[in-house]
Amino acid sequence: MNDTVSAADLLATVAEPTRLRILNCLAAAPLFVSDLQTVLDLPQPTVSRHLTVLKKAELVRDTPVAPFVLYRLTRETGPQGRLVRTILETLGTETDYRRERTLALEQSRTRGGAMYR
Fold it and tell me: Helices in the chain by DSSP H: which ranges?
């Protein structure tokens, strides 16, 4: 994570409910936009817009997997990385977030099997 990103800016980025849900899902597994759409029941433009913000904040990174793009959490070790991990660990204790994380993992497994058959 960029050292110029303050803790306050990081928290403001993460505090937006849809971005928090996306991060929660990516804590379970790397996902495609279509996976996030399915799990979160959101339209593609909404998911993509929030992923752009999260990528700019260096909270997620993308990997092209032609013709798609796979998104995953960045693995930061500094104070901001610890802050994000703490937030995600806390979300894992809440029922709704835990349910979405489970759905995200299932979606990843289903998608992965279908892609490589």
Answer: 7-15, 17-26, 33-40, 44-56, 79-91, 95-115
| Cα angle for residues 87, 96, 92 (degrees, 5° grid) | 35
pLDDT by 10s per residue, the chain, length 117: 555 678 899 999 999 999 999 999 999 999 999 999 999 999 999 999 999 999 999 999 999 998 899 999 998 888 888 999 999 999 999 999 999 999 999 999 987 644 543
Residue 10 half-sphere exposure, CB side, CA atoms within 13 Å? 22
Radius of gyration of the chain measured on its C-alpha atoms: 14
| pTM score | 0.90
Domains located in the chain, CATH noted: 7-104 (1.10.10.10)
